[in-house]
Design a protein that fits this description.
Number of strands: 6
Order of helices and strands: HHHEHHEEHEEHHEH
Structural class: mainly alpha
Radius of gyration: 18 Å
Distance between the termini: 13 Å
Helix content: 40-55%
Shape: elongated
Strand order of the largest sheet: 1-3-2
Largest sheet: 3 strands, antiparallel
Strand content: 5-15%
Number of helices: 9
Length: 201
C-alpha cells in the first residue's frame, strides 16, 4: 500500500466521500478554499500535476527536508477562471476531503463551516439530536444535550456568516466512529447523489 492509500485509510477518506456525494459547492462560494487556503500535496500528486501542466506546477513549492509534502501557494494555479477545479478528477487528497480537515488526534476529523460544511454540520447535529431523543436517558439530560446541539448549529451558522472574511475557521471535531454511523444514516435517507465527481476510493 503506497503512502496516499495508507493516508486515505487512516483518515476514513472513503467514508467522507460517501457523505460528500450528497453535496456540491454552490456557485456563490467562488472557490474560497482554492483561492485562499494553503494546499499541501504528496510527491506523487506533485508528479501528476507536473505531467498535466508543467508550467502551472512550477508554482508548487517543496517543503523538504522538513516534510515529504509540497505546497500549492494560493490561489491554486489549477483553478479555472470560472472558479472550478481544472484537475478535479486528479485533485489531491486534501482537496477531496474539504471541508473535512485532518487533525493530529488520530481519532477524529475536523469539519469547517464553509457553505457546504455548514450544511453537513447542521445535518450531523440534527442526526445527533434525533439519536439522543430516542435514548432512555432522563428527559432533563436529554433536553440539555439537545439544547447544546441547537447552540452548536447557531454557533456554526455565525461562523459561516463571516466565512469569506476569516483566515481561520472554527471546526467541529467528529470522532471517526460517529462519522461512520453518520455516513450510514445519510445512505439510509436515499438522497440523490449530486456530486458525480466524488471518488469513493
Amino acid at each position: 500500500m503506497d503512502m496516499r492509500e495508507a493516508v486515505k485509510k487512516a483518515i476514513h477518506y472513503g467514508t467522507i466521500q460517501s457523505i460528500l456525494q450528497y453535496y456540491i459547492c454552490p456557485q456563490e462560494c467562488e472557490a474560497h478554499c482554492c483561492k485562499h487556503g494553503q494546499i499541501h500535496i504528496f510527491e506523487e500528486e506533485y508528479r501528476t500535476f507536473s505531467q498535466i501542466d508543467p508550467e502551472k506546477a512550477k508554482r508548487v513549492q517543496s517543503e523538504m527536508p522538513a516534510s515529504p509534502l509540497y505546497r500549492i501557494e494560493p490561489p491554486c494555479s489549477f483553478l479555472k477562471p470560472h472558479d472550478r477545479c481544472g484537475v478535479y478528477y486528479q485533485r489531491p487528497i486534501v482537496c477531496g476531503l474539504y471541508p473535512f480537515k485532518v487533525n493530529t488526534s488520530g481519532n477524529s476529523i475536523g469539519l469547517q463551516p464553509c457553505p457546504v460544511g455548514f450544511l453537513i454540520i447542521r445535518e450531523f447535529a440534527l442526526w445527533m439530536m434525533g439519536n439522543v431523543s430516542k435514548t432512555g436517558i432522563p428527559e432533563e439530560e436529554k433536553a440539555k444535550v439537545i439544547t447544546e446541539w441547537e447552540n452548536t448549529i447557531e454557533s456554526y451558522a455565525e461562523e459561516l456568516s463571516g466565512f469569506h472574511m476569516k483566515n481561520t475557521l472554527k471546526e467541529i471535531q467528529i470522532p471517526f466512529d460517529e462519522l461512520e454511523m453518520f455516513a450510514m444514516y445519510m445512505s439510509s435517507k436515499d438522497l440523490p447523489k449530486i456530486n458525480a465527481g466524488v471518488d469513493l476510493g
